[in-house]
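Hi there, hope your week has been kind to you so far. Thanks so much in advance, here it is:
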Amino acid sequence: MTNKIFKETLKIKRYIFLDKNPDRIEVISRKNIILSTIESLSYTILILLVCYALPFTRNNFLALNIHPLAVMVAIISLRYGIYAGFSSAFIATLGYLTAYIFSGNDMVLFFLKFQYHKFFIMFLFIAMILGKFQANRKENEEIAKREAEKLEKLLDEEKQKKEELLKINRDLKNQIITSRGGVISFQNIRKNLNLLTTVEQVLTKSINIINQFMNCENASIYIVKNQNLNQIIKIGNSSLGKILDLNEAQADRFLMTLDKGETLEFSLDLKGEKPVFVAPIFYGEKIIALLEITRLSYETSKNENFELFKIIMEEINNSLSRIFSENEKNNIYIFEKDTFITTKKYFEQVLDEVKDRKKYYNQIYFILEGNNKNKYSSEELQKKLDELEKNGLNADYVTITDDKIKFLLINGDNGNNERQLEIVKNILKEEILYEI
């Protein structure tokens, strides 16, 4: 028994700071060491005062069978654990030795007679047994706590996995539904695009398709005119301007798309001042317009939508390629040679589409026209328009028909229309402005 106690005593280490090893049985802190030591000293002094200092208990104090110091060691061991119990056992032994010495006994007899030194062994035995019991209880409690934390963590992970599986399940169901309908829809898109015969019809249809399939909040089409982009169709309330200068910072994503000649994806602009998707619209090998999406619905995935956007734009450009080939055969052109003056036929095609665009996009269209008083040719008119654009002219389409010049203004307000009227007075005679 003595050897077992000695071995257990040798295992005692200094636990000044909280033990951070989760597998250690005993966890003790500086605070617990101080508290257990103070309590042991306090109880020992109190026991000596009550049980030894009083004359009627002094004679029996050293030979008590249920010794109060042993009770004190038991209490400390159960409260703080095995190491605090050993500390309390040594303090109790010191208290017992104090009473032994003050009783006038010889120290040699203390070590020779079992009836005296048995208390030291008893204190250590109580500290070891009850301290071990407390340590086991704490260990089991800690293990149970860790298991509960693991189970809680596993439960949270399972809940998260369940939510992810439910989301995947919903997405798969939606994909199955949309793919079944999507194949039919894409076939219808291709079929409808193949029925179109003019560029403007395709532009009108393209924004319709984007609005239907992309679930976007803001989108628009800009036609390319020199170093400017003119917005001709839009949905939503985009912060992008009606006319963009390609040299300005707001148009940098459009310029990048023009340079690369391919559909591009950009980072989300929280202010909504720059597009997230931009695609070139080709007529032959030339980019005549750009289709952009500024804001997607929060319910949609940006990556999936971009792939869908590219597919749709490919179909749109395929349709325009077909129309270009047919127009080349029939000598039908968008612009007069080396200018941005639209041909009479193309201008009529634009006007034909205005009615549908008014119905779908709630846009306002004005015609500003007058006699060509200076008898400008298309080349001469283009040079004059280049000069007038510096003064604020922002007509979207211009054409020469017989002896007249016509300007198409999209979404112009009264103030802007009056300014446009003043600007073109030098090249028109008997000019009039009216809404289509």
